[in-house]
């Protein structure tokens, strides 16, 4: 494997605000052979075309950030790594927001232990991400407006918290979360 394009993508998303197809991925290299296997972490991906020096695939449902690997006949890759016998790989990142064309502008990062004041003008949606959460943590929102929150799990499946007043939402341990917050004209404080 010499390259993977792109190295950031998403599985299929079917959320209330849109349907987004899985990211198409091209893997370049040599001598892929006919029994080549592509995996995103431990999930095998279908190969739509094998041209010997290029493999075409897409991000399968349920995958999360980790490694994309290619193994040839008789080979195997060690789970959670990019190494093994007749195996090559590289890191691959799942980004739930990128698939939307960043329709709500740039994501704002909120680190664990921090808070941010966010100004909303009219009814507006803004995109956020956390750093990697360690231990138990909550997203706490204080706002003069009722808010709706869409929280994505690490495989881009969304959970909606609709029309909430000052919600406290548990965040999963061990990875970065992405979420949207919709509010009316107000200044909202988001704390993790």
Characterize the structure shown.
The chain is mainly β. It folds into 2 domains: 3-94, Immunoglobulin-like (Sandwich), CATH 2.60.40.10; 102-191, Jelly Rolls (Sandwich). Helix content is 0%, strand content 55%. The strands form 5 sheets. Strands 2-11-10-6-7 form a 5-stranded mixed beta sheet, with no helix packed on it. A 5-stranded mixed beta sheet has the order 12-14-19-16-17, with no helix packed on it. The chain has a 4-stranded antiparallel beta sheet with strand order 1-5-9-8, with no helix packed on it. A hairpin with a 3-residue loop joins β8 and β9 (54-58). The model has no long low-confidence stretch (mean pLDDT 94).
The low-confidence parts are none
Order of helices and strands: EEEEEEEEEEEEEEEEEEEE
Radius of gyration: 19 Å
Residue share in β-strands: over 45%
Tell me the overall shape: elongated
Main beta sheet, described?
5 strands, mixed
Task: Count up the helices.
Answer: 0
Please report the distance between the alpha carbons of the first and last residues.
39 Å
- Let me know the number of strands: 20
Let me know the CATH homologous superfamily of the largest domain: Immunoglobulins
The quaternary organization reads as single chain
* Whole-number count of domains: 2
Give me the CATH fold name of the largest domain.
Immunoglobulin-like
CATH architecture term of the largest domain: Sandwich
| Chain-averaged pLDDT | 94
Structural class: mainly beta
Spatial order of the strands in the main sheet?
A: 2-11-10-6-7
Organism: Leptospira ognonensis
Region (Disordered): 1-21
Biased composition (Polar residues): 1-17
Protein name: IPT/TIG domain-containing protein
